[in-house]
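Researcher: I'd like a candidate sequence for this fold, 123 residues long. If you have to choose between options at a position, lean toward the conservative one.
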């Protein structure tokens, strides 16, 4: 299973940006899809998570500003980011906890990561 991410971007404080990620492969079931981020010199942190049933959780730092959503038909996860701040500058990684069809069997769960999307927020 490959996680194919959209392009990132450079924006200014207060702007909005939407990033996306698609799980490529014969996906059978989405358990969860998540967005993590890693800022320069910091550890990777969980930003937002969504289950296949649509339940969401957010880190306190983005709650009320970011919204995660999933399109199960497209095996895609989106992160709508609003009221962006310089401290949101980071490389954003999507992660999927997925079952896939391999041959005639359903296998998993697979833990799959995207390569990272650079988001830069300038003052």
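Model: Candidate sequence:
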């Amino acid at each position: 299973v490959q996680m194919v991410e959209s392009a990132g971007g450079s924006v200014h404080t207060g702007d909005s940006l939407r990033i996306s990620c698609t799980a490529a492969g014969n996906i059978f079931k989405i358990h969860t899809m998540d967005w993590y981020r890693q800022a320069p010199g910091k550890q990777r942190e969980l930003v937002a998570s969504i289950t296949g049933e649509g339940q969401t959780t957010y880190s306190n730092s983005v709650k009320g500003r970011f919204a995660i959503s999933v399109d199960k038909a497209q095996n895609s996860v989106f992160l709508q980011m609003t009221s962006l701040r310089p401290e949101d500058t980071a490389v954003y990684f999507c992660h999927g906890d997925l079952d896939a069809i391999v041959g005639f069997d359903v296998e998993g769960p697979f833990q799959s990561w995207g390569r990272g999307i650079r988001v830069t927020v300038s003052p």
